[in-house]
């Protein structure tokens, strides 16, 4: 048994999404404010703490409909025009989570209470958890009563001499105000069986959960009891906050901030020999405890005898009062119940005379280590709690009167494990977490007891340690209509490349060897080589400061490989600028100095197969800006490559058309006047001499090509960075300037769409001009 997927509706910005769960570890990735935390909270609210759903968890745009329902009630009618109250009026706006399990035929006894029909024989089984009015009649009556009282107060105020009282807001002004105070008492989460035959696939990332049949009866009791154990490690793990609490699937809160508190909890549940029915292995510990108690009792009686005598002289205890005595009860966990209980050994005892180990208390260590050890101990505790390790098993058997049988599924939610952890430790944690949850004799080879780990993260280091099969990308979407709010869709990245292919292997290996924030970025820039990787960020800082306010990832990947990222970029929906080279050739395998009307082609696979999908060099040179853009659903990709430019020579000769073939010669052409003013015999001097000597397009191209063949491009870029001038005198080549201008406009459009839907291109262009 395992969770196949969940579908979430009307929960914050998760208007309607499906999240597929991997068999083992599932990783939620995406840019800031993309909905990852909302998804984790939905799982927690519906599956763990079902009394904690608040009005803020409702999708904001749904309040328009809910307030309209309240207004209809006030007017004395329902939306259907009749006085009857129907839950169908609310169904499209109620927060819900559909849990879809894959259940084998021999596991039906676990789910007998939630079967859709008696003929069900295994496969997908769905349960809907929905926040809905407990009793619609009570909601109706209490809302109208509150509105009536508010109106009475307003009428009374209208007779007061101070007319300003009528402007005072009185609760409740509308249904939303009413529910902000009464949701907890008038709403509850109910569960319903779903029909797998009515499942629909998501369309453009938007799920289509089935409608419940009219008159559907909720499931009695908790459908997850005995079926799933759910544990959560929350993102807020402030070790200095001893009052903060965590909740388990059993509904209990645990004071678990300090490591010593966690060790004590673990000891109590699984190791403590003082629990009922000790085992033979506990007898040595019990004998030592009892011997210590007797010795300590004798010492305490002697020490307290004088003090107790003084108390008796005060008349207490009297003849009928019990006498005071001192007796000890040693609890081994008392040794863990203080700040220095958990210590870190800096230097051990080396065995020499007078040597003592050097140790520090737990809060003297770094937050990273505390966080790591804390999470590891929680995972161990959750696993052993599921398996009822040690004393917990005997206690469970005693309470139920029958042998303990663990739930067949263990779901563990971990929010942002990267807090305070170094990059290497983040990678170690995500690699070891699932193995740790399965490190038990009854779990290692037992497919009937399944563990599923769900992790949300902002860390590229965590994401890169997981393959595409486990990544679920949360994509921010603009509002679907006026009056709506921005929404989220979720892409299952295991579907990006279909079956395992050479492209998938290449992309996986590439991303793992490159520090890449692609899964958390607002936009991407793909560049050709090391010189662009060094200088493009400098161009952005100098000429496009607005781009520095967005999260942009820059990847160095040549034109012969950039197209391999195409399926991934399409799934992520990232505005992407590809800065690549013209790469002229006599044929696909033979390079050439670029020239017009020679039948030349581009050897750049990205230009040929992705955008603008042209082979002919002449067509590429004459391509308009709109031909360099490919539009997708909600985002665009633009390519920027070299095109002809006019170069002025130092002797006032007529300007010459130059056709750059690479980033370096394009940079030289557009900075020729700057290069002339700079002293030096390096690459800049060679470029300047070539420009001044090249009297024709062909001659200029030939001499530039000769220089580029011998140029160390990264060293050239570093040489430019070393220029000791403020402001930095180098301007981006024209093709890169155009590309960065386009990307800046895309991000402005994206930002406005998230705030104001359906903004016209003219308005966007005008705002871009104002921003400049």
How many domains? The number is 4
Assign a percent range to the helix content: 25-40%
Q: What summary fits the major beta sheet?
A: 6 strands, mixed
Structural class from helices and strands?
A: alpha/beta
Our measurement of the CA-to-CA distance between the termini, rounded to an integer number of angstroms, reads 57 Å
Q: What is the averaged pLDDT score?
A: 83
Strand order of the largest sheet: 7-12-13-3-14-15
Note the overall shape: globular
Q: How many beta-strand segments? A: 25
Strand content: 15-25%
Work out the helix count: 22
Uncertain regions spanning at least 5 consecutive residues: 240-256, 756-772
Describe the structure.
- The structure is a single chain.
- The protein contains 22 helices and 25 strands.
- Helix 9 (423-437) links the parallel strand 12 (409-415) and strand 13 (450-456).
- It is globular and about 110 Å long.
- It has 772 residues and is α/β, with parallel strands linked by helices.
């Amino acid at each position: 048994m395992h969770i196949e997927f969940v579908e979430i509706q009307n929960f914050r910005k998760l208007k309607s999404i499906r999240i597929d769960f991997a068999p083992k570890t599932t990783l939620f990735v995406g840019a800031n404010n993309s909905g990852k935390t909302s998804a984790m909270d939905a799982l927690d609210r519906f599956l763990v703490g079902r009394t904690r759903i608040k009005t803020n968890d409702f999708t904001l745009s749904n309040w328009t409909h809910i307030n309209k329902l309240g207004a209809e009630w006030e007017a004395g009618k329902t939306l259907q025009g009749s006085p009857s109250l129907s839950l169908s009026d609310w169904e499209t706006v109620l927060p819900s989570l559909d849990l879809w399990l894959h259940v084998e035929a021999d596991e039906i006894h676990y789910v007998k209470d939630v079967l859709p029909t008696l003929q069900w024989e295994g496969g997908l089984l769905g349960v809907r958890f929905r926040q809905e009015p407990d009793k619609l009649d009570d909601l109706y009556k209490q809302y109208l009563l509150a509105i009536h009282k508010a109106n009475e107060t307003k009428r009374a105020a209208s007779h007061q001499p101070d007319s300003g009282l009528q402007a005072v807001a009185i609760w409740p002004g509308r249904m939303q105000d009413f529910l902000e105070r009464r949701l907890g008492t008038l709403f509850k989460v109910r569960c319903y069986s779903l029909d797998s035959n009515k499942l629909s696939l998501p369309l453009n990332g938007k799920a289509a959960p089935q409608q419940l049949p009219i008159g559907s009866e909720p499931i009695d009791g908790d459908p997850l009891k005995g079926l799933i154990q759910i544990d959560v490690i929350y993102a807020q793990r402030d070790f200095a906050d001893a009052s903060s609490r965590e909740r388990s699937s059993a509904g209990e809160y645990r004071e678990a901030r300090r490591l010593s508190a966690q060790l004590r909890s673990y000891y109590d549940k699984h190791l403590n020999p003082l629990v009922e029915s000790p085992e033979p292995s506990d007898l040595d510990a019990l004998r030592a405890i009892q011997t210590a108690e007797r010795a300590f009792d004798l010492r305490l009686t002697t020490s307290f005898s004088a003090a107790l005598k003084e108390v008796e002289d005060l008349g207490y205890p009297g003849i009928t009062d019990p006498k005071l005595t001192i007796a000890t009860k040693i609890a081994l966990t008392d040794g863990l119940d203080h700040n220095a209980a958990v210590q870190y050994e800096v230097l051990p005892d080396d065995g020499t005379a007078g040597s003592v180990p050097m140790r520090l208390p737990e809060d003297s260590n770094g937050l990273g280590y505390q966080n790591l050890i804390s999470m590891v101990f929680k995972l161990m505790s959750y696993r052993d709690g599921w398996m009822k390790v040690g004393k917990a098993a005997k206690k469970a058997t005693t309470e139920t009167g029958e042998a303990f049988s663990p739930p067949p599924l263990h779901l563990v939610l971990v929010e942002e494990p990267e807090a305070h952890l170094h990059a290497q430790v983040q990678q170690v944690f995500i690699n070891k977490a699932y193995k740790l949850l399965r490190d038990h004799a009854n779990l290692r080879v037992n497919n009937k007891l399944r563990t599923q780990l769900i992790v949300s993260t902002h860390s590229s280091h965590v994401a890169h340690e997981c393959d595409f099969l486990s990544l679920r990308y949360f994509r921010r979407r603009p509002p679907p209509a006026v009056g709506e709010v921005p929404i989220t869709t979720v892409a299952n990245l295991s579907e990006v490349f279909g079956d395992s292919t050479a492209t998938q292997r290449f992309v996986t290996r590439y991303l793992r060897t490159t520090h890449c924030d692609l899964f958390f970025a607002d936009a991407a820039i793909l560049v050709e080589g090391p010189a662009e990787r060094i200088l493009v960020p400098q161009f952005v800082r100098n000429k496009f400061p607005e781009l520095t306010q967005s999260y942009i990832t820059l990847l160095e990947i040549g034109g012969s490989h950039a197209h391999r990222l195409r399926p991934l970029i399409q799934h992520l929906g990232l505005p992407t600028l590809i800065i690549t080279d013209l790469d002229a050739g006599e044929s696909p395998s033979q390079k050439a100095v670029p020239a017009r009307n020679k039948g030349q082609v581009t050897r750049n696979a990205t230009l040929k197969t992705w955008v603008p999908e042209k082979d002919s060099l002449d067509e590429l040179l004459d391509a308009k800006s709109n031909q360099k853009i490919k539009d997708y659903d909600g985002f665009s990709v633009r390519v920027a490559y070299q095109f002809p430019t006019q170069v002025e020579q130092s002797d006032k000769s007529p300007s010459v058309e130059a056709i750059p073939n690479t980033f370096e010669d394009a940079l030289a052409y557009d900075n020729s006047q700057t290069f002339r003013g700079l002293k030096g015999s390096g690459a800049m001097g060679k470029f300047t001499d070539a420009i001044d000597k090249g009297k024709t397009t062909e001659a200029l191209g030939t001499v530039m090509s000769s220089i580029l063949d011998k140029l160390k491009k990264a060293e050239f870029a570093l040489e430019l960075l070393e220029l000791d001038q403020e402001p930095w005198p180098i301007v981006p080549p024209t093709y890169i300037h155009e590309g960065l201008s386009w990307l800046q406009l895309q991000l402005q459009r994206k930002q406005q769409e998230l705030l104001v839907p359906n903004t016209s291109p003219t308005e966007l262009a005008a705002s871009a001009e104002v921003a400049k």
